[in-house]
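Hi everyone,

Forwarding the result from last night's run.
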Amino acid sequence: MDLVTRNINADISAWLSKNGLIIKNIATFIKSTADEAAVIQVSGLNDSRILEIMKTFLHENPFFTSIYYGDENNKMINASGWDPYEGFDLRTRSWYKNALKEDDLVYTNLFLNASKDDIIISIAYPVQFDGKNAVISGDVSVKTLISEIAGKQPSESGFVFLMDEESNILAHPRYTDWDILNIHYKDERYSDLLEKAKKNQTEFFDFELEGEKGFVVFKHVEGLNWYLLSFIPYSDLNAATENLPGNFAIILILITFIIFIFFRIQKKNIVEPINTLKEKIIGLDFKENFQQRIDYPIRNEFSSLVDTINGMLSEARNTFLEKESAEEELKAMNEELLSGNIELENEKELLNGLVENLPVGIMVLDSDLNIIITNYEFTQLTGYDTEDIKSINEWFELACTDPHYSRTVWYNSIYLKEESSVIQSRIVTKEGETRVVEFRSNRLKNGNVIISLTDITRKREDENKILESEKKAKKANRAKSDFLANMSHELRTPLNGVIGFAEIIKDTELTDEQREYLDNVITSGRNLLQIISDILDFSKIEAGRMELDEVKTNIIKLIKDSMKIIEPKADKKGLTLKTEIDRRLPTFVLTDPLRLKQVFLNLLSNAVKFTEQGEIKFKATLKESKDGMAFITFDVLDTGIGIAEEMRLKIMDSFTQADSSITRKYGGTGLGLTISNSILTQMGSGIQLESTVDEGSRFTFSVGFRIANKSLPPVEKTENLSLSPDNSKNAKKTDTKMIKILLAEDDRLNLKLAKTVISKNLSNAVVYTADDGQEALEVFRQKSPDVVILDIHMPRYNGLEVTRKIRGDALNDKRTPVIGLTADVTGKMLEKAKEAGMDDIITKPLKKHELLEKILTHSAL
């Protein structure tokens, strides 16, 4: 009878294992396909491939009504073609959660399918691939299985039935008209039966069911919360007994008597020795820690039992000794732990002392944003302690009201960052005072955050004062630069008249004495002009507004031109000039020729000035050439008065010469070396000095130049840097072609000077004049001149504005050359002139040869 129950239970287990194995195989197959695709680095697994695999298994196992796949992103692929209803989320299903949790096969309770015509159980198995958790699940029909269970009979009137954990009757032969809707049918009688089956210690027990007594055999179905039960009425057993032969009772009585005699004989051999053994065991004294043993000298069937008991006593003794040893170790560990706790308390006390005495405020937040620790400095800075502010929310409400740092910004910047972070924010103290505080945070491994607070209010005020001072200094520096630029213009303009008319007078018939006086006037004027230029350059350097322009330059020609300019001065003093140029020097380099020539002339002029006899030597040596760069060293050597050692550093300072007697004797502003050294600093170099008093000096500097592309044309940049000889004496125009010139200048003296120079030297020139920009524009439109010369600083339209209007005038069908006239020779002014449309610039004071040369050049275009 029990065999029937066991067989049915085995059938159910086999059925579950078989269907579960199918789901496992699907998951394994999909996982292996994904792994193989990853190894060969191809896209071997996608939704369509998963669907194809599941459809294959569904076709081969028709008892599955559906097989589907679902992952942690709620993506679902169903091999049966069923589309989930709107809002369906497989991740909320218990079978999905349990499969991932158990990491094994799971089975659901029975449920009706969607069409209510079949009973289903779902089997699910987890799978992982592509970094995602997923579950393969299948729905299996159990209607046929339940029918088979209900048809089994353990006896003539006995029956087999199936129940679940919640006492629902799943299968029962008495319900022949099984209604599929009664999946969860309950009967209190069977519920009592199931409860007794669960509590019973054996698989057999007596029970009265439906008014009939009998016994019950039950088995738990492995893997499910199902119980398989068989009820066998006693009436079936009685009927079986009545069918036995008549002498069976006699035989049964005889067998019973024999058994009785057998037990009486064995009593002496079994029961009495057992009682003796019992008494010896009771007599054992376990207070001696299991050291006693049972003395049983007779060797019979019980000797082995005695040996076993004695062995157990030995093991108990060993266990006791191990326990004693463990207790000793535990005691030692407790003592060590107590010592560690004491040490920990000491360290904690030390740490609390350190925190309390730190010179910055400390605030510690726990993972729930509660303020759990503050120190003395925190209270001194904010006026609050942990009694006033218990959480970060209260901190924002009371103290941290800076609009630039909202709770979210402060939380993200200070609390959430794993690495140390710093912010600066305003706080309001308990007394209502606003302070600027620097916050530094450090996150601990336990989730707490330590925040330090440093009062930087005074520091911020000092910084603001410094910034304000810097602004004022820059403003004053700009004002000074603007003043010097304006003064440069105002000084150059009258000097232009002085030097210009002096040169015109020089071309007339003069006595030798008059000519000497006139030369002195011109020389003094030009010296004054040089001083003005030095002061202007110095103002640019101080304001940081001196800029270098890199253009293609013939470095060898630049050196030779500089020597030619200084040659008249050297000849006048009877000095010998020597030039040594390394033949390896590249012809063309990229540099600012104007500023480099200014350095050359300054050093050469100083050498001539401070040398009474002997020679001046200029050397240019190629030190290295690599990677398109030429590193050239320049030396200016003289045999002059030399410089004392204590003065060598001072002469690089502004307005400084070796001593006051030199200033009286040689003159000068003391700015030349300062300006030259500043220019070289911008070029990445500087002046080095070697000197011996009364023997001479050697000024050295080295510059790295980029070697220029030979295909690019050189760019000439000129400025009035020296007293060049006048080469325009014979510039009088003999061409009969008439040149119409418009000359606009608001200073009448300079206007007359320029007109006189042009008229005396260009006989075929007609000069139209204008006093301001408005008049110049009107004359231009009336006379259509061939060349226009405009002073840049004029009232009623300056020269730049007039140029823009000329360039935009529809009547000007040809591009008339426009030449600017200015005392402002800054790079910014030159750039403005070019942007306005001017073709050239003449700098004041006006130089006759430069004016005539530019007129002739542009009128020939």
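The radius of gyration is 57 Å.

Cheers,
N.
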